[in-house]
User: Fold these one by one.
Assistant:
Number 1:
Amino acid sequence: MPKSCRVNEACIGCGLCEGTCPALFELVDGVARCKVDEVPDDLVADAEDAAANCPAQAIEVE
Ligand code: SF4
């Protein structure tokens, strides 16, 4: 099963995820969004790192 990625409403718009993984995340109107519905295999580790490092625990990778 491919991993999905989403940013929930807890995001505080700090920009960390976009800065560390611009292939997956972008800030739009002050909050992050995940640019893909399915995370490519080679970016799963980056997505999981971003989720672990998010100060608001707003990134859900599952
Ligand atoms: Fe939002 Fe977390 Fe990304 Fe910061 S790291 S912009 S809080 S999703």
Number 2:
Amino acid sequence: MNDFKQFALSTELIDTLTKLGYTEPTEVQRLVIPIALQRQDLVVKSQTGSGKTAAFAIPLCTLAVWEENLPQALVLEPTRELAVQVREEIFNIGRQKRLKVPVLFGGLPIDKQILTLKQKTHIVVGTPGRIMDHVRRDSLMLSSVQYLVIDEADLMLDMGFLEEVEQIIQALPQNRTIMLLSATLREDTQMLISRYMQAPVSVMLESDTQTLDTTLQIAYWIEKEDKYAGLLQILEQENPQDCMIFCATREMVNVLCQKMKRDHIRCGMIHGELEQRDRLDTIAAFRAGRFHYLIATDVAARGIDFDHITHVINYDFPTGKETYVHRIGRTGRNGKTGIAISFVAQSERHMLETVESYIGTSIQVVTLNTVTQHMEEHAVQAKAFWNRQRERIITKETKGAILNRDIMRLSIGGGRKSKMRTVDIVGAICGIEGIEAADIGIIDIRDSLTYVEILHGKGKIALTALQDKTIKGKVRKVRETGGKRR
Ligand code: AMP
């Protein structure tokens, strides 16, 4: 039984959601999906972790018409990491409908993105700067866009994207629907709403307190010079399953990561100065369970969803009260409990009090016991922690992997340069006995190679048959391939 059935979604989509483990809509989904499906403008006050991505991804995937070639929906994200994460969620949800969901952001070559956009595209996800870049180059056509999602609007404006967001809205057709999602609704966000949205329906959710309720908050008095030793002691005591460690600056993130690596603790780091590829690879590796301690600055980590964080450590105490809530909101999500540990120096006492009055509860601060007091107990805990650092890494499957099980991706020799077209591929594959058009998934034509997905477990049949079948007048090299799916 899947409770998403209440929204009258297609059986295919219900099946996809079940495979993703979504059987009961979250609150934001329950409220947003029916309104979004009716194409009404919507303002949603909600935070990451509430399931808000699926709340717009489900309607977008339902409303998308597969046969249409030009993009029908545009999703704006403030950061590249968020763009990648949200694209993945939409792609998974639209997987069985074979929706093409390219992601566009700076820091990667634009030429490849231009080639991708020349093919059929249903939903585009991207950062405002790069999206505008494509609009100016005429590589992204907005004439068929009916739906615009402005996600994390407050962060988007914090990052100075107001001008681009306005330019994008102005470039859209008149009859578009807009959904704006934001953790807070400040004056500048209100301005966007009143200027561009028509009688929007409001859905307001307060989720901060929920996170606070399910998270145990602990704090230790600790001075700067003792922090690293203190961290080791905490890690040995807690042996966290998956932990985010926040530092105040990029420099501190670098230093801490080096120290931990020197001590053979498997960890990774993200901050704004790292190369885009490295940041994305780090996030993917953390999600896959290749390491368990992610050291981060606030900005780099904002909005990114890791659903398995058991501990958050404030190595440097936050300098803003909202930041405290943001950080500890990484744990204690989806009904699970979490632990938030903060290091507080005497000089940070005032900030601690500010945080306490903001969250409306006091945080008990204690002195970190010296190890000598609980020597034996600590030795056992420490052993478990250090053993874990040497364990063989068992990587976790990504959430979408289950959807890929019945799908085989083939590479076919020949692409744009040899004038390969979608019809050539579809024609050849449909000529194989036992395979019909509905078994063909996403087709991606590159310069001299074409990728095609064969669905419903029929990959082997297609692979064998294509070995000696002609495609566009020639027998082509056809292989099974892994690689990045777009
Ligand atoms: P978001 O707030 O969109 O970042 O989502 C937070 C997390 O909840 C993500 O890992 C989603 O995959 C997951 N999620 C979203 N909707 C559901 C649902 N209905 N049931 C279970 N997990 C969900």
